[in-house]
Specification:
Layout (H helix, E strand, L loop, with lengths): L1 H5 L12 H14 L12 H8 L3 H13 L3 E4 L3 E4 L44 E2 L12 H13 L5 H4 L9 H15 L8 E4 L2 H12 L5 E6 L3 H9 L3 E8 L2 E2 L1 H10 L2 E6 L13 H14 L2 E5 L24 E6 L11 E4 L2 H11 L8 H12 L2 H27 L4 E3 L7 E6 L5 H10 L2 E2 L15 E5 L5 H15 L2
Parallel strand pairs: 3-14, 5-6, 5-8, 8-9, 9-10
Antiparallel strand pairs: 1-2, 4-11, 6-7, 10-11, 12-13, 13-15
Helix pairs in contact: 2-4, 3-4, 5-13, 7-13, 8-9, 8-12, 14-16
Length: 491
């Protein structure tokens, strides 16, 4: 009986997977399907080799592989048997068995929520007015490569560096360099104990929600806002309340009214350039927000995603720079300076908060990439980052001005916008006659990616507006992009 089963096995010699492993896979399928039963004796390796027209060594290696996995048992003088410890399985028709294909559906229930069903989009077209990304062609990639390589080859003792786990909050060398950098550029008052390395702003938000938010806690943020952050709030089973955003940032008076009625646990804010509208939080509202945090005891999560890019004057210092009572958790990222592909971020907070976050982080990610952290520390210490940001600030300002002139001259009847003081996007409101989802689809067919605007809308906010990123495109690419939009809108 078992000899007959082997005649149905097909082995392909031209694939990358070794033939003996293919044979082991096929035999395992016979066992799992119940065709080969527990305790059943197999034909000799010689007979199997003759049946399949393969080398006997190939068969022997396949049998040894399955013995190592516990599926077969071999006895000297008796032969090889299917393991006696396998439960009896009902035979199934191998022709209808689909176990050779990747599984698409689990056999267990997945409890999902609508907020998790957000598609992520990767543009594969040559032109892009994106969500506000830097130009990776300008990034100091050679310097980063050199610094990363030096981390791998420096020092004679590799064990002290790579032989064991290190601190979950990040490498000391990186935190020292980052502390000095943030104190000098953002007016913060930190030591390395105030810093935790994360893999970007989203990880920082998720970590804070895991560590400091309990089900039912109230989190307040501006509307429109960043849905990725809001979905983290919902996933932590918090109650999210949105407040208005005008030309001066979040309306803090609305926050006070909420605080007078209910206990607020955290306020999420992007004060430097509000996401998505790019407006800056006015100084009086900054002061009032800090005062409210001190009065009502809520956390301020300050997402400072693009501090380095402010064109008309010096950037406003973070809320964290004026925080005297440890109410602010400050989160920043190098991803928006280099490229989203580089996952380098940080959280700044009081020492006890950092220690708690580090303990929670170990449940998910034992530690970050200390090699990359140390490479970045070298670039910080030698001034590469500061020089790079000064260079890109000038380039991005020029691109902003060029892009806004194009929008004004070519699309003005159909759009409204304000020239942003900083950041890498122009918040652009289109005339109601322009169907943004349709425009986005048609533009993509022409080789241009723009948002369809759906991501920014909610039950309380519905503007026909999108972010048009200019920093990652050259002036020539910006011209082509605007030309495509102009032609499509004019159709």
């Amino acid at each position: 009986m078992s000899q007959t089963l082997f005649t149905a096995i097909t082995l392909i010699h031209s694939t990358e997977r070794p033939v003996y492993l293919q044979l082991a896979d096929e035999m395992l399928d016979l066992i799992r399907s119940g065709k080969l039963k527990s305790g059943q004796k197999l034909p000799s390796s010689r007979k199997i080799a003759e049946t399949l027209n393969v080398n006997r060594v190939t068969v022997t290696k396949a049998l040894e592989e399955l013995q190592l996995q516990g599926w077969l048992e071999s006895y000297v003088g008796k032969g090889t048997f299917v393991s006696f410890h396998i439960p009896e399985l009902s035979p199934t028709n191998l022709k209808t068995q689909n176990n050779k294909q990747p599984l698409k559906q689990s056999g267990f229930e997945i409890r999902s929520n609508n907020y998790l069903n957000n598609p992520y989009f990767i543009s594969s077209v040559p032109l892009h007015l994106d969500d506000g990304y830097p130009d990776p062609k300008l990034a100091p990639l050679k310097e980063l490569y050199r610094a990363y390589r030096s981390q791998l080859i420096r020092e004679s003792s590799l064990y002290s560096k790579f032989g064991a786990y290190s601190q979950p909050a990040g490498s000391i060398y990186y935190k020292e360099a980052l502390s000095k950098y943030l104190n000098n550029t953002r007016g913060l008052k930190t030591t390395p104990d105030n810093i935790l390395s994360v893999r970007g702003t989203l990880m920082g938000i998720n970590l804070v929600c895991n560590a400091l938010i309990q089900p039912g806690d109230v989190i307040v943020s501006g509307v429109p806002g960043w849905q990725r952050a809001e979905h983290n709030f919902l996933h932590s089973k918090a109650k999210h309340i949105g407040i208005s955003v005008d030309e001066f940032g979040i309306v803090v008076d609305e926050l006070r009214a909420i605080c007078n009625k209910t206990k607020v646990r955290m306020v999420y804010v992007t004060p430097h350039h509000h996401y998505p509208t790019t407006v800056s939080l006015r100084i009086d509202r900054r002061i009032e927000l800090l005062n409210l945090a001190n009065e009502f005891g809520f956390i301020i999560f300050e997402d400072d995603y693009d501090f380095a890019f402010h064109y008309n004057n010096s950037p406003l210092l973070p809320l964290a720079s004026a925080d005297e009572n440890g109410m602010v958790i400050y989160c920043g990222s190098f991803s928006k300076s280099f490229s989203p592909a580089f996952r380098m971020g940080y959280i700044v907070a009081s020492e006890n908060v950092i220690k708690h976050l580090a303990n929670i982080r170990m449940l998910l990610d034992r530690q970050g990439d200390h090699i990359l952290d140390n490479a970045m520390a070298e670039l910080l210490n030698e001034g590469t980052i500061s020089r790079y940001l000064r260079k890109t600030l000038s380039i991005y300002k020029k691109r902003r001005d060029f892009f806004c002139e194009l929008l004004e001259s070519e699309l003005k009847p159909h759009i409204k916008f304000k020239i942003p003081d900083g950041g890498m996007t122009v918040w652009t409101e289109f005339d109601k006659s322009v169907n943004l989802p349709v425009l986005s689809k048609k533009a993509y067919q022409k080789g241009l990616y723009i948002s369809d605007g759906i991501l920014h809308n909610s039950s309380t906010y519905n503007k026909n507006a999108i972010r048009l990123g200019f920093a990652s495109s050259t002036e020539s690419e910006l011209s082509k992009s605007v030309e495509i939009m102009q032609n499509l809108i004019g159709q």
